[in-house]
Write a structure and sequence with these properties.
By secondary structure, the protein is an alpha+beta fold. It is built from 8 helices and 13 strands. The protein has a domain of about 180 residues: Jelly Rolls (Sandwich). InterPro entries: Phytyl_CoA_dOase-like.
């Protein structure tokens, strides 16, 4: 929603639960244009790759470390609504770590095992788990098409060792089982334009897409300035200042792309 500012109560909720859902952070008209842009983006589709879940399902991913100036993905990543909110939730200046489009196709979209993003990012030289992601629903996300699931408050467990689970790398199953008995399972069902912000240590997963509807999501990942990786030339960028765009500039770019 243009002009959205996260409240102290929402920040407290994020700190306690490890996630925050914001409804209609992008308007329906904006999302219609983003959906059309993404589904017509042949370059993104061409560079995407598949991750199998070991049970016959597959999810296609397209990961980018750069922010092309003429891209609608860049407008979302830089938007005050997303980046400004993430900075407030993490309590520091944030920079773009990477962004990715996840493409769960009807009937074939794969599952993801329980994992923490910091379970992977730790090995990129990030000393602290002071990182987070925002998943923006491009399509409607439901339990039937494999929406995000989280264990509320599980970010307080700290980093869990990640091991091979089938054909994926997931959090230690014994620890996950204990966490599931202590933390509430939440299905993050969302309409296009809704977003869920979540901490890098929050345990999360998703089921296969067994529906006839696609489930595409744009995930914007951020690191904090004080957490600049101790290695350079890693998988994702080191710190560089992120120019955050006001709503007016984001809206202008969306409208300009729609006119092309």
């Amino acid at each position: 929603m243009p002009g959205f500012t996260v409240s102290p109560q929402q920040i407290a909720q994020f700190q306690e639960q490890g996630y925050l859902i914001v409804r209609q952070i992008f308007r329906e008209a904006e999302m219609n244009r983003l959906i059309a842009y993404a589904k017509g983006d042949e370059s993104m589709l061409g560079e995407s790759y598949v991750r199998n879940d070991g049970q016959g399902g597959e999810t296609r991913l397209a990961v980018r470390n750069d922010l092309a100036e003429d891209s609608l993905y860049t407008a979302v990543v830089r938007s005050q609504r997303i980046a400004g909110t993430m900075a407030a939730l993490l309590g520091d200046e944030v920079y773009h770590y990477h962004h990715k489009m996840t493409l769960k196709q009807p009937l074939t979209g794969g599952a993801w095992e329980w994992h923490q993003d910091y379970g992977y990012w730790y090995y990129n030289g990030c000393l602290y788990p002071d990182m987070g992601s925002c998943m923006l629903a491009v399509d409607k996300a439901t339990q039937a098409n494999g929406c995000l699931q989280v264990l509320s408050g599980s970010h307080k467990l700290g980093r869990i060792e990640h091991v091979k689970v089938g054909q994926q790398t997931g959090a230690d199953p014994e620890r996950v089982a204990a966490a599931c008995s202590r933390h509430a399972l939440v299905y993050c069902e969302m309409d296009p334009g809704d977003a869920v912000f979540f901490h890098s240590n929050l345990l999360h997963r998703s089921d296969q897409n067994t529906s006839e509807l696609s489930r595409w999501s744009l995930i914007c990942c951020y690191n904090t300035r004080h957490n600049d990786p101790i290695v350079t030339g890693g998988r994702h960028p080191n710190y560089s200042p992120l120019e955050i765009w006001p709503d007016e500039r984001v809206t202008e770019m969306i409208e300009r792309q729609a006119a092309l």
